[in-house]
Amino acid sequence: MSDLKPLVADLNASVQFAERGIVSKTLHESPAQKLVLFCFEPGQALSEHTAPFEAVIHVLQGKADVKLGDNVYKATPGALYVMPAGLAHAVTARERFVFLLTMTRLSNPAQLK
To answer: What proportion of the chain, given as a percentage, has pLDDT over 90?
Structure first.
């Protein structure tokens, strides 16, 4: 028998905003992946950075500018962005903005081929 348990979460109930900072809540973390819910007030931003693993942004609420490499996208609910490892990216909220970030940690991406 495995010790693994499913994650069952109400994302809408997990949304929380803060005037003085971005709220990030880790919903799940394992050796393979991490799920983080981000909540921004208008004007709040994550400055440009990179990550050593693939990540996915799934927009749940609001509008923001999502910069991926040299391109800026107008993010709205339902949008999905897949970012390869090492891609420079940034997020700036234009209104209250909520997204789920899924980070995939693979020690050897060739395992999937």
So the answer is: 82
- Calpha distance 70→105 (Å, rounded): 24
The total number of structural domains that make up the chain: 1
Q: Is residue 1 part of a domain?
A: no
pLDDT at 108 over 70: no
Q: What is the pTM of this model?
A: 0.88
Cα distance between residue 99 and residue 37, in whole Å:
6
One-character DSSP codes across 61-86? ES-EEEEETTEEEEE-TT-EEEE-TT
CA distance 68 to 10: 28
CATH number of the structural domain spanning residue 43: 2.60.120.10
